[in-house]
């Protein structure tokens, strides 16, 4: 076969993969997501839990569509109106118009006597207590709720209900706008909007960019006003853009470095051509597998998948180096080594399938399929091409010097092993490994957006921890009764409760309040208020406020509407300024209530996975030990396993000194073990050959180039994964040559 024919012929396999990938991409719709909270999919364990989980998903999706904008400064009100007008004209957004005080008081006036605060009810039971209570309330001349409600309800019952409701929200309504004020600080105006349309990641990114540009324009037009924004849309957009930037930059930089390494070590264009086609085959095979097996992909999985570049090229480098050693053919040891390398690395990544994260499962599919594509290309295309290669003299001379150095080190490998073990023990005594499996590892949002999110949380929910409570009932009435139970407990423990029952008490509560109101009226409890008014008090309510009437009122859009699933109605409430243990302990007593702490649930799930993955790590080590012993004998295999275990211990202790260990460090360690097996296998087969050392060195450099990039990722999960593999590869690269038997040194 001519040189030209061989050069063209090896393109057939990557071309075939490219055509298949394009065909599947065209025929099958695959969505790309940037939602950080969707990375972990919590699987309910019981039927009841499944019902709650389904309702939680539906209610939370509505809350996640909320966008919040805040304005503070001299021209805050003008900036507020300008942005509100722009948002109202947008087809994908709905501005939550806040009702005026007048509309709210007018809506509740027909139900006077049936709506009152807990404090008002307590005061009604005693003439003296009520007299003192009424005098205190009447002295609140600055309260807008008092001035807007007292003319229609001089009994102060409606005022007590509205005042308590407003206080519970930690916000005020001024001219139909939400205002937050604390002490002598300038007021902060809040504009709340909602994304009303379902769109692709690209459309959501475009919407987020449009809103950010609108805010920037407002900041320029109102330099003395501070304008901030927050919402899941902005977080997902920033994470998607960051992932896109990293994927492009890391991938390009990795390819450039790989090309440089190959050109510096091997002569000619052919090795570079083979290396690039090997990487292309791997990427296309991985992409094809993902498109065939998945309906939705996460952008972070594509960033993780760039590591395939540094792993897949190993096969080409070993083949090229082997051919440089044998000018007329490829060795049988190479073919066996390639197969063992594929199996060991694929086994390491296969551990990712046990993760409760679609992201890591996608990475496993991409990497394993990509490695198979690269192995097939090298084994059945490159090797059959029979194209000779030649290493550069500088690479060979450097390899000879390095082999001489390692030969000397192997004569002292007992002392080296004890030293490494001692260093590991010393590091453990300095810092015992700590664990941190927070779901925040997936978040790469900017510090500015995170600070805005915290401030908006303070404005809307107050300070202190905040939790959500999912409540259900067989009817709306029972749902409200259950909510009121939670509310009573929260208020008893000085917490804050926000939920539908705050604005819409159950009819049971309304009837009890109305009965108490009528008894007080018959006992003349309101006589002094009538004297102040100069006329008798108006009649009390003839009807109770129902959910259907509330849904037509001014506060319907302010509160999250309950949903119905199966025989139950579900609602989502917010509790703040209360300890988690206290709230969870109370809710555990009721089967119709459940605490919703999504970040906490996902972090706990991640921690559980981290704990369980140690079994996968143990299985991987066992499988590696079996492979070593089966192919190299009991003594040599056991020695290789011992060196590998010592390397892993040193890596763990080095990471633990710098930062707490996360699940991504452990996953990185598993990958290091899988890659280390390749080094050990090729060293055992032909470790004294300079060509083998060059191939392993190029392989290590290519992997280091890729994983070193990941260390600089803004996403902590990716950075942790890259750091673990980077440190691990450096350690293994220096330890692997020590695993060769001393008798091999006699051939020098």
UniProtKB/TrEMBL annotation:
Sorted UniProt keywords: Membrane, Transmembrane, Transmembrane helix
**Has keyword Transmembrane?**
yes
Please give an example of a GO cellular component term from this record. Answer: plasma membrane
Annotated coiled-coil segments of the chain: none
Membrane-crossing ranges are 247-266, 299-317, 338-357, 363-382, 415-432, 613-634, 641-658, 664-681, 693-712, 718-736
User: InterPro entries recorded for this chain?
Assistant: Mycobact_MmpL
Q: What is this protein called in UniProt?
A: Membrane transport protein MMPL domain-containing protein
The species this protein was found in: Pseudoalteromonas ruthenica
